[in-house]
Amino acid sequence: MTVSINDRVRAYHAGFFQTSMYIPGDMLKPGFKVACGWRGASGVPELGYAYTYVIRAAETGGLKSANYGTITCPADAGTVFLPFVTRH
Q1: Residues 4-21: what's their mean pLDDT?
Q2: Are 57 and 65 in contact (CB under 8 A)?
Q3: How far is CA 54 from the centre of its chain?
Q4: For residue range 45-58, what is the model confidence (pLDDT) as tens digits?
Q5: What average pLDDT does range 70-78 have in this prediction?
Q6: Are 21 and 3 in contact, with CB atoms under 8 Å apart?
Q7: Given 9, 52, 76, 77, which residue has the most CB atoms within 10 angstroms?
């Protein structure tokens, strides 16, 4: 399984799993460090940069899966960590 932000791999996990894979959010604390940028950096007046993320998984039989989206930071010249949110 890989986690990519803006086409750059930020996390990689491999192992033996019978039917499912679970990566606890604690393994990726505090998250992924990104710059947020000034107001309007993403084209949205009140927000900073927008980042695309892709979570890809593959199994030895060749089956693959992916989940992806975009997250936009609040406008700020500082740096924040994108949280790693898990769903149950």
Answers
A1: 85
A2: yes
A3: 6
A4: 889 999 999 999 98
A5: 82
A6: no
A7: 76
Domain ranges of the chain: 2-82
Tell me: pLDDT of 88 over 60.
no
- The pair of structure tokens assigned to 15 is 């192992």
Structure tokens at 34: 């990104």
Burial class (CB in 10 A: 0-12, 13-18, 19+), 63: exposed
Cβ neighbours for 37, distance < 8 A, ≥ 6 positions apart: 48, 49, 73, 75, 76, 77
Contact 56, 4 (CB under 8 A): yes
Do residues 32 and 85 touch, judged by C-beta distance below 8 A? Answer: no
Tokens of 29: 């604390």
Q: 30 preceded by cis ω (within 30°)?
A: yes
The whole model's pTM is what? 0.73
Cβ atoms 49, 73 nearer than 8 A: yes
